[in-house]
Amino acid sequence: MAGLFFGVVGLSFFDYKPGQKRFISLIVLIAIGSLVISYFYGNILNRGISYRTEIWLSGLNKIADCGWLIGCGFGGNSDIIINSGLSFQHAHNLFLSHLVNTGLLGLFSLLGLLLYTAYQGLKGHAFMTLGLLVGCAALFFDGHSIITNPDDIWLIFWLPLIMTYWEINHAQTKGVAESQRT
Predict the structure, then answer these.
(1) Which of 22, 57, 128, 144 has the fewest CB atoms within 10 Å, counting from its CB?
(2) What are 80's strand-pairing partners?
(3) pLDDT 10s digit of each residue in the chain, 182 long?
(4) 2 neighbors 140 (Cβ within 8 angstroms)
(5) DSSP, res 80
(6) What are phi and psi for residue 87, nearest 5 degrees?
(7) Rounded to an integer, what distance in angstroms lies between the CA atom of residue 133 and that of residue 96?
(8) Phi, psi of 81 (to 5 degrees)
């Protein structure tokens, strides 16, 4: 839901093309309809926000115990235990989980890659940058590892990242080729 909201807001900042307002309105209508229907047949937000703040705070305590510089590592020591005694396999936030596993060095490397690609994508008007930012917004509320077997994280994170980079590189290559022809 967070990714959907961020995506609709992001789409509203792009130049409108014919039918885009209707498309955005349809997405908003579907999201509102889903929330209304889920209220009567099982609230989809119940699981979505359950224990998140407690998990995140316990994740920060975990990283303090392991060490801020290099983290706990990928050796299975990343379980998060909240005050009520419940145990979770990961921090339910891709960036916090990455911090727990790799420390500040790994987190800054990941954020550096994301920020550089997003900056270059916005500067070069790469449309897939929106997909990358929407994926990052969604992964702020779930996800635990970006280096796994192919799964949904690849479609939410890696695919938009690679496509954004491809758009940037394609635009630069096209610009160089046009300047060489003249």
Answers:
(1) 22
(2) 88
(3) 666 666 767 666 666 667 777 777 787 788 778 777 777 776 655 555 567 788 888 888 888 888 889 888 877 666 777 778 777 777 788 888 888 888 999 999 999 999 999 999 988 888 888 888 888 888 887 777 777 667 777 888 888 898 898 888 887 777 766 777 76
(4) yes
(5) E
(6) -115, 140
(7) 17
(8) -115, 120
